[in-house]
Amino acid sequence: MGNGRWIRAGAILGFALGGFFDGILLHQILGWHHLLSLVPSVTDLRIQVMWDGYFHALMSVIAGLGLWLLWRIRQDAPALPGRGLAGALLIGFGVWHVLDTLLSHWILGIHRIRVDSPNPLFWDLLWLGAFGLVPVLAGLWLLRGSGGGLSRRQSGSALLVLFAMTGGMAAVALRPPPDQPLTAVVFRQSLSQAQIDAILERAGGRMVWTDGEGVVLADLPGDRAWSLYRQGALLVGSAGLPPGCFAWSAA
Q1: Which residue from 47, 71, 90, 103 has the least number of CB within 10 angstroms?
Q2: In this structure, how many other beta carbons lie within 10 angstroms of the beta carbon of residue 178?
Q3: In this predicted model, what pLDDT tens digit does every residue of 167-219 receive, in sequence order?
Q4: Residue 10 · residue 89 · CB < 8 Å
């Protein structure tokens, strides 16, 4: 089954990558839910975004721990079991989705995969199977057949790839989809509407709609979205967000 230290470290990193995948895809890009979407006392979108941020911060800490353990083990071990590491990553990735489904969806009930679906159980089960059970089974299969290993140089390159992949996931998610004509932006509540208008103007955009409380739809060049985070934006996403989580938040 491979070296136990590699397996534990790889599973920890895979667990964090599963959390990143969930948060980036479902919270930020698709906007199907936030971490606390179904908590009755949390209705302000800014609070929802803040807790999403805490969630990603926790995943960053866990990912950092996994990467540190892998790098430390590499200094002591003569070789990295390539298939074994891939299997451990898949197991950790799948375990995240299994625990999220059982704990967050069904026991605590703080969110579902699609909070606006008339049949949320279908989406929960689909996600559990596709991203939970299948990766776990694939990871176990890889661990069972793991043998040999990568050289020290190859293992260093593999870990550098993991470093880059882990750090780059969030950066990719910050860019809105290219096929969306409008961009949804949530600004800090302390900013006035005049300040928001000025920020959008400096970024080469224009406001199309606003709720009057810092949530706007803007016609904005895609390559300018990054600049809004430096000027008070809490969330920059696609126009697909308002029918989902934005609409639920306003309910």
Answers
A1: 103
A2: 7
A3: 666 555 445 444 456 777 888 888 899 999 999 999 888 888 887 878 888 88
A4: yes
